[in-house]
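As promised in the previous annual report, we have extended the structural survey to additional targets. Below is the entry for FctA domain-containing protein.
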Amino acid sequence: MSFDDRDNYKYCTDYDLNTGIFNWEIKATYTTDGGILKDWMYSRYGDPNTAKHYLLKDSIKVYDENGNEVASDKWTFSEAAADYADYKEKNGEYVHFTLNFAEKGVYKVKYSTQTFDVPTPLRSALQNTALIIDGTESEEINAGETTDVEGALGITKTAPSKNYATNTISWQVVLNKNRLLMKDAIIKDRYTTLSGINKSALQLIESSLVVKANDGTTDKVLTKDSDYVLEKVDGDEDYSLGFNIRLIGAYATTSDQITFNYDTHFFMDKQPHHDTGTTQRFDNSVVVTYTGEDGKNHTDGAELATWVSAQYAFNGLKYGKYLTEGADVAKAFSHNNPFLETTAGENSVYWTALFNTWKTTIPKETTIKEALGEGQTLKELVIYDVDVAASKLEAAQLGTKWEVNVDYTYELDEAGVPTITLLKDKESTFAIFVSAEAADEVPTYKKVATMTVKDSKPIKVEGTVEKSAKDAWISKSGQQGTGEDYRSINWSVVLNKDGHTIHDPVVKDTVKISEKTFVYDADKNVVVKVFKAKNNGSGTFVKDGEALVFTEENSPVVTSDSAAGTQTLTIHLGETIDSAYIIEYQTLLDPGIQNNEVIANKASLYGKDIQFHEVTKTVTVKSTDGEGTSSGKNGSITFRKLDENDQLITTSSAFFDLYRKDTEGNLTLMLSNIEVKGDKIIENGAEVDHLSNLRYGTYVIVESQAPEGYVKDNQEHEFIISRERINHTFSLENRKASSKIELTAKKELSGRPLKAEEFSFNLKGEGVDQIQKNAADGTITFDAIEYGEAGTYEYSISEVIPAEKEAGITYDETTYKVIVTVEEKAGELEATAEYENMEVGEVPTFKNTYAVTPGSIRLEA
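The corresponding structure token record, generated without further manual editing, is:
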């Protein structure tokens, strides 16, 4: 359906930005008498004070569908209070109106609105809403208009350069690139966007303005007041709002291309301020109004946003340079050395704190604190006026040196932080130069300068100096193996290329176990080789000697993060290093990995627990022989360690090894000595619910150590993680480890035959107190003692001497000491007894005697 075929419509037919007149047309179709048209010059439900244009009441004309004007008695402009309520006007002008139609029919309403701002700013969004009410039916039509340039002339605006020495921006405008005929052209340059927002703190340098015309063959520099007039904006005395160029004389009518170049000062102190600093964005726009060959007014334009250095965010900045002992101090600067020291007496940092880059006035009594960060000791402090480089915000040349007690004073607080107080107003840019001794332990040196102007918010500028480039601390390369070794990734790490002294150096490398695992030897020790390194003269580092031998306490170890599904290789390099090193190790790709999958791992260098740098290296997997078909990497394992009563064992930990199984049945150790207590994995003393981020595939778990007092399980437990079984729970029961021992002794009686159960004997010790009698052959056997844990247990065996001794019997009163040793061997407990002062195989022997005494003769028939 075409636009005209619609029952109802509304649109802006045309507008003139210079006059601010907008022309509108509405089509309204009524099937019943008494039709109503309501119109708003703002959002219907919004605030009338947001209206940007208002009705020109006398401009309303009503036509029928054939274009004939409808008599005024057939429609009325409503003045009823109900139609306006309290939103009828803004600034005394109509921003809402209502028309009533006596008879049904098709009507076209044409009217004009006037913008409150004249000329109308470009990119202005004018809202306009109509409501057509036909009996019980209604239709709302939104027909706003956003003004824009025509784009016919062809205009570009650029900012080709900035000068930080003078705080200026150079601009260029090229207009009428399409060489149209322009009459009475006025060029309006403003320090805002085309829509009039983002006012920027700029000011034209009048002497810099050069206007040229090009007729297609040659450039001609135009003469001010003959070919053009430079005009100030109304109310602007110093070109701080912008300027106008009006072409006159021979160029009052022209089709030449016009180019003008000019410079502006930029003023950071007058830009919008935020907590994060002052806005570095500067907006500039140009609007050209002219009469075209068609005799109509036309408008064209362009806009540009440009940014100065982010270091202008505050009225100061800080930077520095690290030099090793013996270095030339002048190398720390692009200007003359400001310090008395010419050669660094020790490893040092040389700082520059640049203030008043905005070129304002810093009043006397302003204070500046120069706080050195960790690992630095103050050596010298001096202050100079400086010139700033044109292309970079840094000191380019030293000016006048400030004198202590004339230009400034400074004192040290209890922490050794110098506080500088200005004794004069300062309008120039100045620099505070500080030298500091640098400790070996710190890879990055920091410094904070805080300038406080009375009754103003303090300005804090921070600087950092890296002792080495990041990749000089640690860099990493990786290469996938080929042929049968295709699952191996060979890694090489080079660290400390600049040969700095690093205390307690540690390298850590973290990998995802769903992608790869480290390679271990037969004793489950991770395989790592470390070499000293040297520069071969071309910037490449090579091994310098044989691989280093680790002490047992410094051997590389692998730890895991079960929740993250990662494992970390930690390599301790001793107390101190002061040269480059090369570290080599391997990881083994998961058998389920896919071709073209990108794997990554991170290596970090630490010194005294301070991270010097972290580097991430990626490798794209190739040639996995089609084995890698699994895509899932969200599997998990939960452990449950149970006793024979199906209860969680939480008294002590069990340890497990996790293996990955490939399609050929080969096992690869992934994680060793996973500590489990009950149903929790224990890592660094913390409890973890499960081992996460496992790739789909086959796994094997083997118990490496049972909980204390339990028998170790030696079986291989295989399970599969898949899309159907993402989360696997591994439950393993251990029976309590135990051992029994029967202690024995021997009874001998001389003088007559021994009778069974004639004498009693006592076994006494830790939790044991037994009485046993002798057998007829003299053997004495105590009830078995059962042990549930390893240890050493002591007992005593003695004969029980009756209170009423048998006549003629002499009893053995010896007490024998017995030591039982219980040891765990391969998950089992084994008890052995050792009788004090006895040879192996001998047992305590109690010797009684019988002698006939008077009155004790026994007669036998």
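The two ends are 146 Å apart (CA to CA). Residues 857-861 have pLDDT under 50 and may be disordered. These points will be discussed at the next consortium meeting with the crystallography subgroup.
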